[in-house]
Amino acid sequence: MAEVTNKTAPAVNLTDELFSTKQSSSCHLSVQAGLDGFSFCILDTKTNKFLVLQHFPFNGIATFNRLSEKIAGIISESELLKNNFKSVSCSVVHAKSTLVPNALFDENQKNDFLSFNFTLDADEEVRANNLRNLDAKNLFAVNLNLENTLKKFFPNVQFIHHSTSLLESTMGTFKNQPGKKMVVHVGRSQFEIAIAEGKQLLFYNSFRHQSSEDFIYYVLFVCEQLQLNPEKVDLILLGEIERSSALYEILHKYVRHIHFGERSENFEYAYKLETIPKHFYHNLFSQYLCVS
User: Fold this and answer.
1) In the predicted model, is pLDDT for residue 3 greater than 50?
2) pTM strictly above 0.90
3) Residue 5: per-residue pLDDT
4) What is the pLDDT of residues 79-132, one digit of tens each?
5) Between 164 and which of 6, 129, 135, 284 could a Cys-Cys bridge form, CB atoms 3.0 to 4.6 Å apart?
């Protein structure tokens, strides 16, 4: 098994020079936690402007219990995260989520709904996010060690699934645009595909990838299943994928119309955050849109 590094220095560390920890009481903290990494950004709710972004990539972390330990260490060492925030949310990154229309949803049956598609571990509980743009619930598993760790530092933390951010932003962005939109959100070891047409979500699923061949196989498979022509479909790329990457290169061989997505226009961004591509950390920056 790969060795887990003890270093907690962020690979991405962007903070507006004018930001002061004294502002934290009027700020929202958005956190994202998955086996591949831990990220957070800070939004000044008075100015509606993101001021801070940090990202810690992980290697060799195989369980959410170990992830919880790693995150606890980062938070304990962080001067930024020791402050009291107006509100806090955490999106968890994994594949255990499923969509249920509001008309069929029953709070007492949420475990049954999710268990139909996934095996729930003994240290997991099911949570539900409301999808405003879909009239549906997003059911997902939360590891209790992760939940307890974050509540220790942030008692008011609200949990969402990272796909909640993706789906809400996708449907909000394209609901008034004609034609089918294929949104592909790329992470280090998994990626998501959402296909929308107007106000309808036609498809959503999450896939694991270890190679560019895995990646393009699933993209083309979804196109085939939904009878989408790769030569004509409008594909929007989000997440940490660069034009020079092997994933982009193989995608470009098969899909003609590829566009990089952008951050939500609902917010402003400190100029230091403009130094990273606008499709990076999309779900993290969109998280505040899902906070109730």
Assistant:
1) no
2) yes
3) 44
4) 999 999 999 999 999 999 999 999 999 999 999 999 999 999 999 999 999 999
5) 129
Range of the domain at 251: 175-260
Domain count, the chain: 2
Please check whether residue 106 lies inside any domain of the structure: no
Residues 248 and 185 in one domain: yes
161 and 87 share one domain: yes
Taking each helix axis as running N to C, give the angle between helix 64-77 and helix 144-153, from 0 to 180 degrees, rounded to the nearest 10.
10
Based on the fold, state whether residues 156 and 243 are members of the same structural domain: no
CA angle, residues 89, 151, 130, in degrees to nearest 5: 40
85 and 191, same domain (yes or no): no
What is the helix, strand, coil percentage profile of the chain, to 5? 30, 35, 35
Q: Residues of the chain with pLDDT > 70: what percent?
A: 98
Q: Are residues 213 and 276 in the same domain?
A: no
Q: Does residue 90 contact residue 31 with C-beta atoms inside 8 Å? A: yes
Q: Which residue has the tokens 């209790």?
A: 144
Tokens (6 digits) for 261: 């997505």
Q: Are residues 157 and 80 in the same domain?
A: yes
Q: Buried (b) or exposed (e) across 184-200, using 16+ Cβ within 10 A?
A: bbbbbebbbbbbbeeee
Cα–Cα distances (Å) from 145 to 134, 149, 150, 160, 192, in that order, read 30, 6, 9, 16, 25
Dihedral sign for Cα 16, 26, 32, 201, please.
negative
- CATH number, residue 219: 3.30.420.260
Question: Is 198 part of any domain?
Answer: yes
Distance separating alpha carbons of residues 231 and 197, to the nearest angstrom? 18
In a domain, 180, yes or no: yes
Tokens of 209: 């990838």
Query: Residue 261 in contact with residue 237, Cβ under 8 Å?
Result: yes
For residue 7, what pLDDT is reported? 53
Q: What's the token pair of residue 284?
A: 């993290």
Closest CA to 139 of 169, 96, 201, 170: 96
**Nearest Cα to 37, choosing from 61, 59, 57, 7?**
57
